[in-house]
Amino acid sequence: MEMLIVSSEQQKRLIMIFSRTTAKMSDKALLNDLDAHNINSSVYPAFKTARDLRVERIQFITGNDKANSLDGGDFLYRYLSKGYICLGNYTGQPKPDLTPWGVRSVRMQPKIGFGL
């Protein structure tokens, strides 16, 4: 299992993708295939066309949901603490755990996503 964060520094936006199959795809192929991911956000079409998109990957340990949740939360918190907005809903498998960083809830922005 792998969690990918595709981000745009210029737009201060990101998406999270949880997948078992994208590990075989190159970053370039993944960026060219962003239409395959259904992100429920009104700003996603503009995000997909950003010229500064980059991909970061985190491999999850199979069968250790607690550790995977903490790793995913750490990865996500690094972006959210810099002012990024995550497009879509606060979901995922495993769901990123932000509580070790003092985050009890995220701030939802209707039809866009969430941030701190």
List key phrases describing it.
single chain; 116 residues; alpha+beta
List the helices and strands and how they pair.
Elements: E1 2-8, E2 13-19, H1 27-32, H2 44-48, E3 53-59, H3 65-80, E4 85-87, E5 107-109, E6 113-115
Parallel strand pairs: 2-4
Antiparallel strand pairs: 1-2, 1-3, 4-6, 5-6
What's this, in brief?
The protein is α+β, with helices and mostly antiparallel strands and 116 residues long.
Number of helices: 3
The H/E string reads EEHHEHEEE
Distance between the termini: 26 Å
Helix % is 10-25%
Number of separate structural domains: 1
Biggest beta sheet summary: 6 strands, mixed
Largest sheet: spatial strand order: 3-1-2-4-6-5
Topology, number of strands = 6
The outline comes out as globular
**Strand residue content:** 25-35%
Helix and strand composition category? alpha+beta
Indicate the radius of gyration in whole angstroms: 13 Å
Could you characterize what this model shows?
This protein has 116 residues and is an alpha+beta fold. The protein has one domain (2-115). 23% of the residues lie in helices and 26% in strands. It contains 3 helices and 6 strands, in the order E-E-H-H-E-H-E-E-E. The chain has helices at 27-32, 44-48, 65-80; strands spanning 2-8, 13-19, 53-59, 85-87, 107-109, 113-115. Strands 3-1-2-4-6-5 form a 6-stranded mixed sheet. The model has no long low-confidence stretch (mean pLDDT 88).
